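can u do me a favor
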């Protein structure tokens, strides 16, 4: 198989999976808009800072959805816990946050040497 075929397959699979997860958890897409272009793995503080800067209404932005995050009352650390539980994020041994390509590519995040993220819009 050619590398470009594999890359397109990963991108399409990512697009489908994100649509599926957003159907049940619409708040997930809201959380990833501010993270566009971020490179993982990274420290949680980098993610949290982007959320605080770009989600002006903070956590209340996520309460509007029909199925809000389960650990919303715990703040941003609770949100990370929910994303780990859903399999969107992985916590590495050194504490950094990582993402499987299945989600990373479709949400527009990068990784050195990984499949390039999809361009939105």
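np, heres the sequence
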């Amino acid at each position: 198989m050619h590398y470009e075929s594999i890359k397109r397959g990963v991108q399409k699979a990512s697009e489908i999976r994100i649509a599926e997860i957003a159907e049940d958890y619409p708040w997930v897409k809201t959380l990833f808009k501010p993270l566009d272009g971020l490179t993982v793995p990274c420290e949680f503080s980098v993610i949290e800072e982007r959320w605080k800067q770009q989600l002006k209404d903070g956590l209340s932005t996520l309460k509007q959805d029909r199925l809000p995050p389960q650990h919303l009352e715990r703040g941003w650390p609770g949100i990370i816990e929910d994303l780990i539980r859903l399999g969107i994020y992985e916590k590495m041994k050194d504490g950094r946050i990582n993402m499987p390509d299945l989600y990373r590519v479709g949400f527009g995040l990068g990784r050195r040497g990984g499949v390039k993220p999809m361009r939105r819009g």
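The chain has a mean pLDDT of 87. hope that helps!!
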